[in-house]
Amino acid sequence: MTTHAISADAELILPAPAKLNLMLHILGRRDDGYHELQTLFQFLDHGDELGFRSREDGVIRLHTEIDGVPHDSNLIVRAARQLQRQSGTRLGADIWLNKRLPMGGGIGGGSSDAATTLLGLDHLWQLAWGEDRLAALGLGLGADVPVFVRGRAAFAEGVGEKLTPVELPEPWFLVAIPQVLVSTAEVFSDPELTRDTPPIKVRSLLEGGGRNDCQPVVEKRYSAVRNALILLNKFVPTRLTGTGACVFGSFPNRDDADKVARQLPATLPSFVAQGANVSMLHRKLQELARK
Ligand SMILES: C[C@](O)(CO)[C@H](O)COP(=O)(O)OP(=O)(O)OC[C@H]1O[C@@H](n2ccc(N)nc2=O)[C@H](O)[C@@H]1O
Ligand SMILES: Nc1ncnc2c1ncn2[C@@H]1O[C@H](COP(=O)(O)OP(=O)(O)OP(=O)(O)O)[C@@H](O)[C@H]1O
Q1: Which ligand is closest in space to the CA of residue 65?
Q2: By the number of CB atoms within 10 A of the CB, which of 63, 95, 153, 264 ranks highest?
């Protein structure tokens, strides 16, 4: 993966935080192949960073390459072009990316980059579209984009777009990154996937409980994920986020999480970050609004 610093030409620098799915139940499959879910999203104070500069000539240009993702397929470019087209603005943008989040990790890197692009350009192009329209546009880019646009920890239903904000404890998380790319589409098309978990009420979830219905399928298909779960479970109850590959456990403080991180082998990279009910993107935007 190529990582570039953000150019000093950027007018606006914003974070694109990771998320965790603290649980994920699959209730059924819709006619279009997408799955009805119940999931609990919380943000992490760790993520990518994007820099933006407005252009008068209407060109959208992402200056950072991501290995394996062509410029025009990057969710950042797709988000920027859709907002440009739908808003009718004549402005374009130069965009820089500091990529820290693993791709295909189940911590939402691509979706978060897209949401930060929508909110960043809405601000820079002075569109005043607001979160409702940006979230609706974002849903067309990926099921996880709306929660990043809203920036509030949430219980999500539907395909992830029906969001009920929730207040959760904000522990420290150790997130381990098995070195394998998990295909979300493959996991959702596995015949062995549990697709009939009964719906539960958000209240019973907040009292604890829940699981990740994708975990058995991912553990079976990807030995690197299976091994990471076995290893981490020796220290802390560990679960898969989204469709993986990342797995996580929670701790009351940073020191305890760091101690376990230091005991992991070099073949299993990890990071430690605090959970957040308001995403760092939204905290930064609130700060800008106060200036
Ligand atoms: C599993 C989660 O990470 C939970 O947060 C997300 O729902 C996945 O979100 P995402 O990566 O943005 O997924 P998308 O790019 O929208 O979909 C990737 C593929 O996953 C499958 N998919 C995704 C979401 C969903 N609710 N049902 C599905 O069946 C579809 O086959 C789809 O083609
Ligand atoms: N800006 C981007 N950052 C990361 N991936 C991108 C980006 N743009 C397009 N992609 C593509 O999207 C795929 C999924 O990336 P992403 O990092 O969002 O996965 P993920 O963490 O599994 O997401 P989720 O938790 O939403 O399932 C990548 O493998 C890549 O091909």
Answers
A1: 2
A2: 95
Catalytic residue among 48, 94, 144, 213: 144
Known binder of ligand: residue 103? yes
Q: What is the pLDDT of residues 50-92, one digit of tens each?
A: 999 999 999 999 999 999 999 999 999 999 999 999 999 999 9
| CATH superfamily to which 172-276 belongs | GHMP kinase, C-terminal domain (3.30.70.890)
Cβ(160) to ligand 1 under 6 A? Answer: yes
* CATH 3.30.70.890 location in the chain: 172-276
Going by CA atoms, what residue is nearest to atom 12 of ligand 1?
Answer: 142
Instruction: Say if residues 1 and 163 touch (Cβ distance below 8 Å).
Output: no
CATH C-level class of 12-166: alpha beta
For residue 80, the ligand closest to its alpha carbon is: 2
Query: Can you tell me the distance from the alpha carbon of 119 to that of 128, in angstroms, rounded to the nearest whole number?
Result: 10
pTM of the model: 0.95
d(CA 107, CA 105): 5
- Tokens encoding 95: 């965009």
